Amino acid sequence: MRLHVLLAPDWDHENLAHRKMRGWLREIVYSGGNYGEWNDWGPFDKEGKGTVDWGVVDAIGSVMSMSLYDRSQGDANPRRSRAERQWRMRKM
Predict the structure, then answer these.
(1) Count of structural domains within the chain
(2) What count of other Cβ atoms lies within 10 Å of the Cβ of residue 31?
(3) What is the pLDDT of residue 62?
(4) Are 6 and 58 in contact, with CB atoms under 8 Å apart?
(5) Which range (3-7, 24-28, 30-34, 72-76) has the least confidence?
């Protein structure tokens, strides 16, 4: 089975609403309650039917995309302020 995910939206680290959305998506992805033997430790529905929970798949794709973007900008920690990121880049 192949799962396809659309690219995550372009995030603005300075925007509070965007930061809250990123936190919510991370909560979906990293919450241990979303995975277990009942769904074969994957992004499947909570009823155990084996159907894909597309909300979880989308969250996984978004978190991965956001992490790649952060790393491409030279910073793996998006909580840093833009000024701090620029300062760190100048020191490299």
Answers:
(1) 1
(2) 11
(3) 85
(4) yes
(5) 3-7
Range of the domain at 69: 16-75
Q: Could you tell me if residue 11 is inside a domain?
A: no
Q: Chain-centre distance of CA 64, in angstroms?
A: 5
Q: pTM value? A: 0.67
First-last CA distance in the chain: 43
How many Å apart are CA 41 and CA 29, to the nearest integer?
12
Residue 30 in any domain: the answer is yes
The number of beta carbons lying within 10 Å of the beta carbon of residue 65 is 17
Q: Which of 15, 17, 25 is nearest to 82 (CA)?
A: 15
Inside any domain, residue 9: no
Backbone angles phi, psi at 6, to 5 degrees: -70, 155
Q: pLDDT by residue (tens digit) across 16-25?
A: 888 888 889 9
> Does residue 47 lie in a domain region?
yes
Q: Are 42 and 54 in contact (CB under 8 A)?
A: no
